[in-house]
Amino acid sequence: MKFIDIKRLVLILLAFSAFQLTVFGAAPKTLNVGLARVAITPETPVRLTGYSSRDIPFEGVQHELWAKAMAFGDEKKGYRIIITVDLLGIPHRVTERVRDALAKEIGISAANLSICASHTHSGPQIGNIVSHFNKPLDPDELAEISLFAMGLVPKLKGVALDAIANAAPSLVSHAKGEVNFAVNRRTSINPNGVSDHSLPVMRITDLDGKTKAVMLNYACHAVTLGPKNNVAHGDWVGEAQIQVEENLPEGAMAMVVIGCGADQNSSPRMNTKNPEMDLVYAKDQGKQIADEVNRLLADDDWKGIRQLPEGKMKYLELTFANMPDPKKLAEDAKGAGRTSNYSLLLLGRMARSGDIPEKINYPIQVWDFGKDLVMIFLAGEVVVDYALRLKQELGEDRVWVNAYANDMPCYIPSLRILKEGGYEAESAMIGYEKPSKFTEDVEDKIMNGIYSILPKSSK
Length: 459
Fold this sequence. Notes:
There is one protein chain. This protein is of the alpha+beta class and 459 residues long. It has a domain at 20-310. The chain has helices at residues 2-24, 92-106, 139-165, 235-247, 277-297, 326-333, 338-353, 384-394, 415-420, 442-453; strands spanning 31-39, 66-74, 78-85, 113-117, 168-178, 182-184, 198-205, 211-218, 253-258, 264-266, 303-305, 310-319, 359-368, 374-378, 381-382, 399-402, 411-412. The strands form four sheets. Strands 1, 2, 3, 4, 5, 7, 8, 9 and 11 form a nine-stranded mixed beta sheet that branches. Strands 12-13-14-16 form a four-stranded mixed beta sheet, covered by helices on one side. Strands 6-10 form a two-stranded antiparallel ribbon. Strand 8, helix 4 (235-247) and strand 9 (253-258) form a beta-alpha-beta unit. Helix 2 (92-106) packs parallel to helix 3 and helix 4 packs across helix 5. The N and C termini lie far apart (58 Å). This is Neutral/alkaline non-lysosomal ceramidase N-terminal domain-containing protein. It comes from Cyclobacterium qasimii.
């Protein structure tokens, strides 16, 4: 009997060793990883953000909206935390308050915390693009938005601390797939517009190889649902999380971060004649993601991650090309709609203090996981050129680029798009209350900034 037990134990150990060698390629190293989630769906209806035509609060909840946290490290080695939120964007003031709260609690540095938004256009307004609406927000709506934003900070702090409390030795690996429903939306300006269909995935397992979480990245706007679906909804991102989790062991978590998808739309999307079809499209797009994740999980082509990420952060000054003319703003403000709201807001700021920014402080962040993976975080709505350039220069399989991270200042165009013009280059600045497009050195500044904080092994 003892002999049988020993033999069985040896077989189990051999099987586990084979799993480790298959997935990680060499003797794996465990990393302490914790996971947690918290619902952030507004408790009272508020105006959903992302579409200027919406003029009333949401009329129902189709999806629960979530904040999810993944924490690496321990008290001795320090913590690195990534939080995903089902929101259009994360304002810098929210990020900074969460950082300050966690710094006091656990001593985390700014470079080791990142908050990434899903960019769903069916989530609540929390202070991003307030001037984007055709109908201005009324006082009661502004109060609800303020209360929601104030309540978000303790929730994000709490979910980070819960992830730390749940941390346990884990195995971490990454792989890359491909999904094709993202399309370049600027083809009317440039018929040769490019897309990025890559789907990098990170997997967290326990020491028995059971999946605890996956985090995936896809470069695409979350705009499958149009404004006629006035319901809280995670869009294709929410559907992807739901369907990936349905395929994972019970209790496992799926997180989605968005790549450089500012000029990429989901296709199909926004059926104006039959808006209920938007929900069908989102489910199908979520299934495409879930099926590709399933395919990867069944494959052996995973690279092990053997070190905790080391974070670095830098702020860059990005300059606007010109300042607005008060007389022109006054004329525009006398009209109606989104442009009128923008002009009135800017004119009021100029009249009170001349407080129109000539530049913004733009955060960039890098997490170095070692020779096999470097993760780059960029704020705002970043166009696909940045990811494609970084992958070309640094290696397709080694670079993972997250946009909509830590702040939501505005669109971040490349030099090519600035020269082409159009929405992402210039007119989108109206919704963000920015004075004009950027100067043409914006891409060089960002790329040089990224290179200045990349690990030597990546350059």
